[in-house]
Hints:
- The protein has helices at about 1-20, 30-40, 50-60, 70-80, 80-100, 100-115, 120-135, 140-160, 160-175, 180-195, 200-220, 225-240, 245-260, 265-275, 285-295, 300-320, 330-340, 340-370, 380-395, 395-410, 465-475; strands spanning about 430, 435-440, 445, 460.
- By secondary structure, the protein is an all-alpha fold.
- Among the domains are: about 240-350, Tetratricopeptide repeat domain (Serine Threonine Protein Phosphatase 5, Tetratricopeptide repeat); about 395-475, no CATH class.
- The strands form two sheets. Strands 1-4 form a two-stranded parallel sheet. It has a two-stranded antiparallel sheet with strand order 2-3.
- The longest helix is centred in the C-terminal third of the chain and has 28 residues, at about 340-370.
- The chain is globular, with a radius of gyration of 24 Å.
- The structure holds zinc ion.
- Zinc ion (ZN) binds near residues 466 and 467.
- Zinc ion (ZN) binds near residues 433 and 466.
Amino acid sequence: MMLNAKASDDDVLATLERLDVQRDDPAKRVETVAEYVRLAEFIDPATPTGSERVAFILAFGPRTVDAPLDLFDRAARLSPEPDVVDRAAVAWASISIARGNLSGAEARLWETLRRTRGSGTTSERGACVNLARVLSRQARAQEALLVAGRACVLSEELGDTLGRAAAELASADALVEMGEATAGLARMDAAQARLAGIDHPAADALRITGRQSRLRALRGADRYDEAHALIVELTAEVESLSRGATVWLRGFRAQMHIDRGDIEAAERDVQVALEHAQEDDEPMIEIRVIQARIRHAQQDWPAVIRHGRRAIKAAERLRARLGYARFRLAALIPILREAGAPDVAQRCAELAAEERLQQIVAIDRCAREMPEFCVVRREDRELLVQTRTRFLEEQRECLAQLTTLLEVGTDPGNDRVDVFAPNDDGMVRVCAWCTRVATVGGRWLPLGHLMPPSGEIRVTHGMCAECRQDASQALPDDVR
Ligand SMILES: [Zn+2]
């Protein structure tokens, strides 16, 4: 046995060394990459030789189902080559998002951004693009739009068409999450047009993730027939990715069925999602929410309440982690009220509001650390403003909780949330043009959507420095 194992180790070593020579031959590139990937577990990214092999896989290898996720994970931690560390981290995160590991991806992307920030490299751009994708999926669309905007700027500077397409796709995702599905679809089409004719594994990966984005957009735009056709096409492909991807897709399908009133089909999909989900998965919150919506459609009130409680339990379990999916609980507030359980609805509102509060703290911290993320692109500004009314309407209940939380601060001992900077009259200033809010330290942050309905926090409208500059540039010279 030992001898055999030794002999096969030698074989592997010999094969790897042969590949190291062969990789200089562009004609054999596809074959070389495939062989490296097959032997991924034998590659040690902590050594310079191993690190070079990883760099080659990162440059030419697959980014989808067949990508060596574990090798990228090790390289992101152990490679002696900083560039390989960053690129492996971004690739790992990108694949993890597709597989449904959002919190893991987010943590690693922030880490990468802290390292690469201001470098103007493809790693910095890649980290921004993927971070924007994570934020969109976590219903943190405003941050997502800003981070994607930053990625657009970086790709322009790099003259990177592929990166530009990826960044536009990420910003389109954010728009869809904001409820601007039609604008999102237009941006997606533009991004796919940029991708046409680019022969690169990263472009292939984008075409695939782009279709998942398109699916969400089609549902958002009520274009169900097209969404249905696309979902049939995508199911096998997405479900081969991983357990997490299956949970996401089935949950999504179930919601589409509920929208169309096909409750039986929704139940079947939720069942499949449940079979693949694990209790402490982030998507568990969403699955419980979907179950409650199904029972709501059947007017089975006790079951609505039961699933509502389960959703709360899942959310409380996730509290220690990032668990941004908590915000999904906001969708339960009206139906739990209707089911005659105002106390359970109240708890949902509290948890959802608490998550929003954490988001404010996170945006504030991010703005302090990386002010480049506070710049709203002109083309995004109007869309942000449009979203505000609908957002306030939809989130009224949980925003009322937010007001209470803002008054008392967060958990005792934790940093109190005092990001809003009131003027002398105690009124919070909101820019009437871009809806950003004046915060302590003079920054204008994109928190407009999160402001509680007026009257609960006193708001006065102003104009931020950037909008003032834009406005003055738009005026003819003699008026300025
Ligand atoms: Zn402004």
